[in-house]
Amino acid sequence: MDQNRMVIMIAVLVIAIIVIAAIAYVFSRRRRSLQIQQRFGPEYDRVVKQEGDPRKAEGVLEFRQKRREKYKIHPLSPADRSSFAIRWNEVQARFVDDPRGAVTVADSLVTDVMQARGYPIGEFDQRAEDLSVDYPRIVENYRAAHDIALRHGAGKASTEDLRQAMVHYRVLFQELLEEHRERKGA
Questions:
Q1: Alpha-carbon distance 157 to 166, whole Å?
Q2: Which of 95, 133, 151, 168 has its CA 20 to 30 A from that of 185?
Q3: In the chain, what is the greatest distance between 2 CA atoms, to the nearest angstrom?
Q4: What does the alpha-carbon distance between residue 96 and residue 163 come to, in Å, rounded to a whole number?
Q5: pLDDT in tens, 110-139
Q6: Ramachandran assignment for 119, one of left (phi > 0), alpha (psi -120 to 50 degrees), beta (any other)
Q7: pLDDT-based confidence at 86, cuts 50/70/90?
Q8: Same domain as 169, residue 91
Q9: pTM score, two decimals?
Q10: Domain end residue (candidates: 52, 69, 86)
Q11: Helix axes 124-134, 99-117, angle to 10 degrees
């Protein structure tokens, strides 16, 4: 009888350990998901929708973050910041007389600032993904502005569309000029 009791106690103990481990795993996954959601904000929702599964989306976002950690992103020097600010002011002034040209130059200027900060410059989707790690709340501005720039290239963007593209580019441009990064919890 004592041996049966011992076997039952061991079985209960093993089951309890398995249950505790399962609860800890579920809690850990939820906490990880919540951290990723908070870190990426609206970009998390966009990637979940794109991937169709939160786990896949979280894997995509974690991959982006690990890739981004390999880059040597740095603030602009005061001279570079000033130079880019002057160039941006010229682009904005150009908009009045040449909205189409201004949007084209604004797109290029944002890319130049990204490159000066240390972001690799490849295809647009890759640049947007890289930015989403540091600027998850405004990367959608970049996508929207770029979409308008593409429509402009096809002759399908109105002056109001071009104005909106400039607003989107300006938000991102201003963030890129700043020394802080959104990733620090802003």
A1: 13
A2: 168
A3: 96
A4: 10
A5: 999 999 999 998 899 999 999 999 999 899
A6: beta
A7: very high
A8: yes
A9: 0.76
A10: 69
A11: 60
End-to-end Cα spacing for the chain: 64
Q: Which domain holds residue 64?
A: 2-69
Count the alpha carbons within 13 Å of 5 in the hemisphere toward its beta carbon.
2
Residues in the chain: 186
Do 124 and 40 lie in one domain? The reply is: no
- Does one domain contain both 61 and 84? no
CB atoms within 10 A of CB 126: 14
Rounded Cα distance between 113 and 118, Å, is 9
Same domain, 65 and 106: no
State which H helix or E strand residue 97 sits in.
helix 78-97
* 33-37, 57-61, 99-103, 132-136, range with the lowest pLDDT: 33-37
pLDDT in tens, 152-176: 888 899 999 999 999 999 999 999 9
Q: How many domains are contained in the chain?
A: 2
Asked if 60 and 20 sit in the same domain, the reply is yes
Question: How much helix, strand and coil, in percent to the nearest 5, is found in the chain?
Answer: 80, 0, 20
Same domain, 165 and 135: yes
d(CA 123, CA 74): 21
